[in-house]
Amino acid sequence: MTKGQKNALLWVLPGAGIFLVDRLFKYLFFDARQVLIPGVLALTGARNTGMALGMMEGNAVPILVISLLAVIVAFFCLRKYRITGLAALSLSMILGGAVGNMLDRALYGYVIDMIEVLFIDFYIFNIADVGVVCGAVLCGVSLLFRPQDWSNK
Question: Looking at 22, 31, 104, 113, which residue is catalytic?
Fold first, then answer.
C-alpha cells in the first residue's frame, strides 16, 4: 500500500465509521425513552430542527446550505492539501458527522438526536454531533501543535 493510499484510508475510514454508527443509532433509538445510567445518561429520541445549541431553530434550508458548505470546504481541504496524521483524522470526523446530520435534514427536515446527559442541563445530541465536536477539537490541536500535518506539497 502506498503512502497516498494510507493517507486516503486515514481520512475516509473514521468519517465513514462515524456516519455509519450515527445512522445505526438514529435507526435504533429515534423514539427511545430509556435511562441507561440513572442520573447520568439516557437515550431520549428527539427531533432537532435547529443546529448547534438550538441556534436557527426551524430554518432547515439555511442550515442545510451551511452544512453543505462545511462539507465542501472540508472536502476541498482534504483534496487540495496533503493532509496527514491528526489533521486528516479531524477533518474526516467532521465530514462524517456533518454528512450524517445533513442527510437527516435533507430527508426529514430535522436531525434525530438521542443521547441525553442527565447530570447537567444540556441539549440532547447524536453520534454525528460527537464526531463534529471531537473532530473540531482535534483540528485545533493539530493546527496549534502539529503544523507538519498540513502541507500543500
Answer: 113
Q: How many Å apart are CA 147 and CA 82, to the nearest integer?
A: 12
**Which of 22, 104, 129, 149 is an active site residue?**
129
| Domain regions of the chain by residue span | 3-149
Instruction: Give the tens place of pLDDT for each residue, 91-148.
Output: 889 999 999 999 998 899 899 999 999 999 888 999 999 999 999 999 999 989 988 8
**What is the distance between the alpha carbons of residues 4 and 16, in angstroms, rounded to a whole number?**
18
129 in catalytic set: yes
pLDDT tens digits, residue range 127-142? 999 999 999 999 999 9
pTM: 0.85
- Is position 22 annotated as part of the catalytic site? no
